[in-house]
Structure formats: structure tokens, C-alpha cells
Amino acid sequence: MSAARRFDPIVLLALPAVVYLIVVYGLPLLFLLGRSLLGPGGLEAFAGFFADPFSWTVLGNTLRSAALVTLLCLVIGYPTALVLARAVGFVQAAILVAIILPLSVGVVVKAFAWQIVLRRDGVVSQIMTGIGLWSEPQRLLFTEAGLVIGAANIFVPFMILPIYSVLKLVDPRLGEAAATLGASPLYRFFYVALPLSLPGIVTGIAFVYSMAVSMYVVPSLLIGDRFQTLATLTGRSFLFMRNAQLGATTATVLLVLAVAIVVGSAWLSRRLGGAS
User: Are the beta carbons of 221 and 172 closer than 8 angstroms?
Assistant: First the structure.
């Protein structure tokens, strides 16, 4: 088959989006990479960054908090996606509205709202004290636990929707067929529903983890400067420390992490999709 016949003109419909992404996203990233690699420090800046114990602390904070946020989103999001896939009519529409509507509220507004909820006299402290789990009110604001809770609230829709998009394609009669063969509910979940939903789980984890790794506003407002991540260190380097080389270095490390997560999840999703 000739090259002319293999070319599909419908591909041209993606050209405006590709040009837009190159101009407003690709070129700034290339400029940032060039500044980090070809700047005054060059590769020595990366060597100095990884030689500093504080940098490893920042990297550990970034990866750990993102992993905890992703885990909490998965624990909350998978059952919700399962219910959403089984629901019909008004119930399904109401759940979708409850998931999607909060996305219209800005991250800054949500973060400030969580400041009120997580403080010592906030709702969480009052509930935990009221049910007897805490002997006295405690402050979750400016703690890593508060950061994880607040960030999970913001990112959980990005876990629910990919899993739901896969679960809604699964034939519910598969579980019924397994039940007729004597399979218990736990067996049907771990050996039927869960394997079929793995592509959605991987995609949701990639979405949430990549966003949690690079979050800046949420940790800045919920935990402050005492808990530095790569994103907050990048912002401080450019905005307050006036250290463009350090900012470009940390931003490059953050970019490599995000790209590795997306590429790895895409590869794993294709493998799981082909296996299923």
C-alpha cells in the first residue's frame, strides 16, 4: 500500500491542538530544559542537587505524599466507580453531578475551605472528638495528614472517572455467571471484576500521582514551608530565592518524574488491555 493511501486526512483535525501544545507547552519546556542543562551551573547543578541531603528529603516528601494521596483516592474512588457503573437513571446522574460539579470550583477555593475544616476547632476535629477517637481537639492543618486529605478531595474525580469508564464496559453477567458456578463475592471481585478494571485503575493512578507529585497550591496553603516538595521548592527558587538555576533543576527533575509516570502507565495500560 502506498504512503498516499496510508495517510488518513482526518489526522489533520489534530493539527491545531498539536500546534497549540507545541507553542504554549512544548517550547517553554524546551527553554526550561536548556536553561537547566546549559545554564551557568549546567550538569554540575544536578550533581550538587543530588549531593545535598536536603534534596533527598524534598524528593522523599514529594514521592511519599503523592503516593499517600493516590492510595487514598484509590480507596475512595474504586467503590464509587463500581457503584456508578452499576447505577442507572437518576441515581447515576446524581452521582456523576456530585463527582464532576466540584471540578468547577478552583483549587485555591478548595484549599482555603480545607483550612477551615482541618484546623483545631474545625469539623474534622469536632467529629473525631465527638465519637471518642480523640480525647481533645487536634489540629490537622499544617500536617502531612491534612495535606493528604485535602489533596485527595481535589484529585479523587480523576481516579473515579477512568475506572468508571472501564467498569461500564464490563458485562455484569460475567459476575452472575461466576456466581452460578459457585464463586463467592470475594472471589468474583478479585478474579473477575478487579482484573477487568486494571486498565482503568492504572490510568487513574497515573492521573492522580502525576498531579499530586506536581501540586503547588495545595501544599503551600495546607502545610506551608515546613514541608517542602519539588513543586514548592521550584516555586520558592524562582519567586523568593531568585535562584533560577535551582528552580530550573528542580523543575527538570519534576518533569522527568511526571513523564516517567505517564509513559510507564501508558505502557502498562496497553499491556493490561491486550492481556484482557
Answer: no
- Percent of the chain that is helix, strand, coil (3-state, to 5): 80, 0, 20
CATH of the domain at 234: 1.10.3720.10
Q: What is the mean pLDDT of the chain?
A: 86
Residue 127 covered by a domain: yes
Whole-model pTM: value is 0.86
Residue 271, pLDDT score = 77
* Dihedral pair phi/psi, residue 3, rounded to 5°: -65, -35
Q: Quick check: 76 pLDDT over 90?
A: yes
If one counts the domains in the chain, the total is 1
Q: How far is CA 78 from CA 66, 121, 156, 164, 204, in A?
A: 18, 31, 10, 8, 10
CA–CA distance, 103 with 171 (Å, rounded to integer): 29
Query: How many CA atoms does the CB half-sphere of 11 hold within 13 Å?
Result: 4
* Rounded-to-integer distance, Cα 157 and Cα 161, Å: 6
Pairwise CA distance, residues 228 & 45, whole Å: 19
